[in-house]
């Protein structure tokens, strides 16, 4: 029975295990994200942040634990440790609830900005072109790039490319947005415009999970901060609280290094 009550977590990960060969990169990661919540994921390089995000929308498969999106199981593990995914069509339907933004934009270089935005809604959702164009134009206006509509990505700055990438993810009308270091590839003077776009999205109550090194963003925009280290999610506490007292030695050491 589909769960429709609003207190069902938008994202629920429980005991998620991920191995690459013999390398265990997620060692039982648990995190629950509520509707409209913004959670920043921080931690040293190699701690498993990207892998965790990718496990939530099936860019990686998990080896143990449970993942559910809006109350719908994506993968579950039985008492004998066998991890099972729901059928492919269900996986696709459930993963369509999440949109993802990557460090390196991943725009289609041979398509204009507008074409980048309408491609998936037309091909994946099967919507008529006119409808996808109208939606895309609204989104370009929202991220302040209407005037770049007919440009190719190569003509844009990094900050503009990333705002297009955000608009492109939104064009699929996701309920949840996953960001993997969206400003890490940008020159410092370009991070502000991208963070501003993300802040606006947060103000509209989008559910967001954001891997970031931007401590200012984590402190001001995120409701909670999750700290990962060596494949474990060590703590996820309210942002104010976390920055006042991370509560764990490894988190404190990381924070001192970052600030
Ligand atoms: N596709 C992969 N194949 C093998 N090992 C991987 C792969 N992706 C990530 N890893 C390993 O998993 C660990 C966690 O990586 P990652 O999730 O990228 O960390 P973070 O995003 O926190 O820097 C690292 O040791 C990394 O080398
Ligand atoms: Mg990463």
From TrEMBL:
Question: Which CDD domains does this chain map to?
Answer: ABC_HisP_GlnQ
Compartment(s) where it occurs, according to its Swiss-Prot or TrEMBL record: Cell membrane
Record keywords, A-Z: Amino-acid transport, ATP-binding, Cell membrane, Hydrolase, Membrane, Nucleotide-binding, Transport
TM regions (residue ranges): none
Topology versus the membrane: Peripheral membrane protein
The superkingdom of the source organism is Bacteria
Q: One Pfam family name from the record?
A: ABC_tran
Q: Which residues form the ABC transporter domain?
A: 11-255
Please indicate if the UniProt record lists Cell membrane as a keyword: yes
Q: What is its EC number?
A: 3.6.3.28
List the GO terms this entry assigns under cellular component, sorted alphabetically: plasma membrane
Q: Which PROSITE patterns match?
A: ABC_TRANSPORTER_1 (PS00211), ABC_TRANSPORTER_2 (PS50893)
Tell me where it mainly resides.
membrane
Question: What's its top-level EC category?
Answer: hydrolase
Query: Molecular function (GO) terms listed?
Result: ABC-type amino acid transporter activity; ATP binding; ATP hydrolysis activity
SMART domains recorded: AAA (SM00382)
List, alphabetically, the SUPFAM superfamilies matched: P-loop containing nucleoside triphosphate hydrolases
User: What family does the database annotate?
Assistant: Belongs to the ABC transporter superfamily.
- Protein name, as recorded: Phosphonate-transporting ATPase
* Source organism of the structure: Alicycliphilus denitrificans (strain DSM 14773 / CIP 107495 / K601)
